[in-house]
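Annotators were shown the component list below and the corresponding predicted structure, then asked to write short factual statements about the assembly.
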Amino acid sequence: MGTPSIGHRLAEAAVALFDENGYDETTVDDIAARAGVSRSTFFRYYRSKEDAIFPDHDTLLATVDARLRASTAGTAIVAVTDAVRIVLAHYVDDAEVSLRRYRLVGRVPALRDREIASVARYQRLFREFIGTWLAGTPDADLRAELMAASVVAAHNQVLRGWLRAGGMYDPSGPLDHALGYVIATFRHLEQPKEAGDDQVVVATFSRSTSPQAVMEAIQAHLSSRP
Amino acid sequence: MGTPSIGHRLAEAAVALFDENGYDETTVDDIAARAGVSRSTFFRYYRSKEDAIFPDHDTLLATVDARLRASTAGTAIVAVTDAVRIVLAHYVDDAEVSLRRYRLVGRVPALRDREIASVARYQRLFREFIGTWLAGTPDADLRAELMAASVVAAHNQVLRGWLRAGGMYDPSGPLDHALGYVIATFRHLEQPKEAGDDQVVVATFSRSTSPQAVMEAIQAHLSSRP
DNA sequence: CAACATTAAAATACTCAGTCTCGCGAAGAC
DNA sequence: GTCTTCGCGAGACTGAGTATTTTAATGTTG
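Structure shown to annotators:
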C-alpha cells in the first residue's frame, strides 16, 4: 500500500499534468517522467495517451455486459435498469475523479470524441440485448435501437446534471425518475402494437369505479402483456 | 469540368487507396501523390487524414442547423422531421459514395469513432433545438435529451438498414414510419404529464360509438394538447 | 551457490500524422 | 513595368504510437 501500482501512478501523473499544463501541452514523456518510469512503460499500461484518462472503461463495459446476460426474458427490464445503475454508480463512487475528468473532457475535443465513442459502445450493448429480447416482435430492430438510445440518453442526462452540479447530491432519485419515464414511454406503445394497428381495444368500467381501481386494472392489463 | 477540383481529386485518391491497400497502410503522402499534389496541399484541404472521408459533414451540419432555426414553436415537429429527411437524403443522393464509405467505416475503428462523434454533433443540435422548444415545460431537459436521441437513433436505424441492403430501395417510407413511431411514442406521454401525475382522466363514450369514432375522438384530444 | 529461465522495465530506433515556416511563381492591380 | 496576393511546394520539427533489442530483477533448478 505504501507503493501504489505503476498504473495508478501513471494515471495520477497524467491527470495532474493535464490539469496543470493542459492536454496538448503534456507529452507522454512528461507523464512517464512524473510517474518515475520510462515512456515504454507508459504504453505497456495504456494503449494511448487518452486511455490514461479512461482507465477502467473496459472493465465497466464487461460488467454491464455480464449483468445484461445474466437475465431471462421476464427480467429484461430489471436487467437494463440495473445495468444503468451500475454505470452511474461507478461515476458516483469516484466523484472526485469523475468531476476532474468531466472538466477536462469538456475542454479537450479529442477526449470528448473519445468519450462519445465509448458511450456508443454501451449503447451497442443495450441495443443488442434489447434486440434479442424483442426478437420476433414487430419493429424489433427499430424499437431496440430507440430504447437503447433512450436508456443511454437518460443516463447521460442524469449524469451530466450531477456533474454540472459538482456531484453534490445523490443522483439515484433522478435516475429512477428518468428511467421510469423511458419505460413508461415505451410501455405505452406496447398495447396498440400488440393488439394490431387495425384493432381497437376499449376498456369499460362501471361509472362508480374509483380512479384507483381503474388505474390498477389498467396496470394489471399492461403488465400481463410482456 | 475537364479538371476536377483538387479537393475532389484528393478525396477520390484517398477512398481509392483505402479500398486498395487499407486505411492504416495508406499514408497521406500516398494520397497526395496519387492526386498529383504535395503533402502540404492535402492538409490545406483537409484537416486530417480522416477528414478526407467525411468531406461535406460541416456543410450538412450547417444545413440541418439552418432548417431547425427556420421554424417557430408551432412547426417544431415538422422542422425536426424535415431536418432528419435532409440528412438521409444526403446519403441517398450519393448512394455510391455512401456505400463505399459504409464498408470502409465498418472495418476501421478510427473512422468508426469519428463517425460516431459527428453523429453526436447532430444529436446535440436536435437536443438544443428541442430543449428551447420545450423550455418551461416539466422535465424539459430530460425530454429534449430523449427525443433528440430517439430521432437520431431512428435515422441511424433506417440508414443502416438501407446501407446493409446495398442502397437498393427508397428509404423514405421506412424513415417516415420510424419517425412516426418516435413522435407517437412521445406524444403518448404528453397527456398524463400535462394532466398531472395524481389526476385520472377517463373518457366515456356511448356503448354504440363506433371504434372509428372513438379513435378520432382520442386523436383530436391528443392533438389539441401541444 | 551457480547456471539458467522468466519477465518487467528501459533504451533505442523508426514511421507517420499534423504543424509551421519559408520560398517560389503565377495571376491579377495599379 | 513593379507590387501585391495567393495557391502551392519544400523542408524542418514535434510527438504519438510501434517494434526491437538490451538490461536488470526475480525466481527456479540442479
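Statements collected:
1. Residues 99 and 163 of chain B are 6 Å apart (CA to CA).
2. Residues 6, 37-41, 44 of chain B lie near DNA strand D (CB under 10 Å from a C1').
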